[in-house]
Design goal:
- The protein has 100 residues and is of the alpha/beta class.
- Helices cover 41% and strands 17% of the residues.
- The chain contains 4 helices and 4 strands, in the order H-E-H-E-H-E-E-H.
- Strands 1-2-3-4 form a 4-stranded parallel β-sheet.
- Helix 2 links the parallel strand 1 and strand 2.
Length: 100
């Protein structure tokens, strides 16, 4: 019973973090996330899109949307924003710590 409760709790915490998954582009999807997850502070948007404009990225950040991409494609994003993009691996590590 305890294991089932922990699993359910972790799933709830995980889905309160991961809001949008968009393959391949997040051009318009991130704006939809704002309406769909208005009760969640920081929203995470996973994508495999290979780069976005600086303006779009700044707008996303202004609305507390965290872009999450696989580490191997971060190099395809503008050098000025690479450090602010979360890797998929980093996101999963963060979610795993929610239960501890």
């Amino acid at each position: 019973m305890r294991s089932e409760t922990l699993d359910a709790t972790l799933k709830c915490k995980f889905f309160s973090r991961i809001i949008g998954i968009r393959i391949p582009t997040c051009k318009d999807r991130w704006r939809q996330v704002l309406n769909e997850a208005n009760r969640i502070g920081k929203k995470h948007l996973l994508t495999v899109q290979q780069g976005i404009s600086l303006n779009q990225f700044r707008e996303m950040r202004a609305h507390d949307v965290q872009l999450v991409v696989p580490a191997e494609i971060i190099k395809l994003y503008h050098k000025d924003i690479r450090a602010e993009i979360m890797t998929l691996e980093g996101f999963l590590s963060e979610v795993k710590t929610l239960d501890s």
